[in-house]
Specification:
By secondary structure, the protein is α/β, with parallel strands linked by helices. The protein has helices spanning 35-46, 74-85, 129-136, 154-165, 205-220; strands at 10-16, 20-23, 26-28, 50-56, 67-71, 90-93, 100-102, 123-125, 143-150, 169-174, 185-192, 197-204. It binds cytidine-5'-monophosphate.
């Protein structure tokens, strides 16, 4: 049955955007809504998979029948994804993970000082979770999928990123007004490590989710 082609599989999806705190009231964040990751989770569940959705700050309802693990920061997202990936057949990293976090966290709210210039915010690198899980492969044959939002030289940058991260598939989005961040629609090219290139026309994020699982299912069988 093609519609239950992920039955018996465990898949992990990360969604949303991490928030890296500066103090108890402020954070560095991004514009990811979580909609694409949630669409991926719903689609996989409908196709029969057991789904773990690691959700970073997404203000969206829990999809029915999906195990949702809420996280805040990149470090927390890494912990949750690595734990769930241990017995997963596929991992799809749709979350927008902050590349950097503030070096220090102020336990009390940072105050402005009269007549003083603002203090610069020192940043440190976050772990690259996608590169880590793709490099280590908790299971032989595990399929690892990344996402990339690009504004220019979309395909060339996508190919380079696919190679750098070591994943099997990379969904490359062009960031635009009505697409990607916060939108209901998306348009993408899915690049395969085998050289394949699958165009997904402008449409609902559910349609892109289904193409991603088609390509994952092909690689699992
Ligand atoms: O390098 P870039 O942030 O463009 O890569 C995007 C892809 O890598 C996404 O799949 C994202 O979830 C993942 N990523 C990650 N850990 C990071 C940064 C990005 O897993 N620290």
């Amino acid at each position: 049955d093609l519609t239950r082609d992920l039955a018996g599989r465990h898949v992990v999806v990360s969604a949303g955007g991490t928030r890296e705190p500066l103090d108890p009231v402020r954070f560095l964040g991004n514009r990811s809504s979580g909609k694409q990751g949630y669409a991926l989770a719903r689609s996989a569940a409908a196709r029969g998979a057991r789904v773990t959705l690691v959700a970073a700050n997404a203000a969206l309802p829990d999809p029915a029948g999906v195990d949702v693990v809420p996280v805040g920061t990149a470090v927390q997202l890494r912990e949750a994804v690595l734990k769930a990936a241990a017995d997963a057949d596929a991992v799809v990293m749709a979350a927008a993970v902050a590349d950097f976090r503030p070096e220090t966290y102020a336990a009390g709210k940072i105050k402005k000082q009269d007549g003083q210039e603002p203090a610069p915010i020192a940043l440190v690198r976050n772990p690259d979770i996608l590169a880590e899980i793709a490099g280590e492969r908790a299971r032989p044959g595990q399929v690892i999928v990344g996402f990339a939002a690009e504004t220019d030289d979309v395909l060339a940058n996508g190919r380079a990123k696919l190679a750098r991260k070591g994943c099997d598939l990379l969904v490359v989005n062009e960031v635009g007004e009505r697409k990607t961040f916060g939108a209901e629609e998306n348009e993408a090219v899915v690049l395969g490590a085998d050289g394949s290139e699958t165009g997904v026309p402008y449409g609902p994020k559910e349609a892109l989710a289904d193409v991603v699982w088609d390509l994952v299912a092909e690689r699992l069988s």
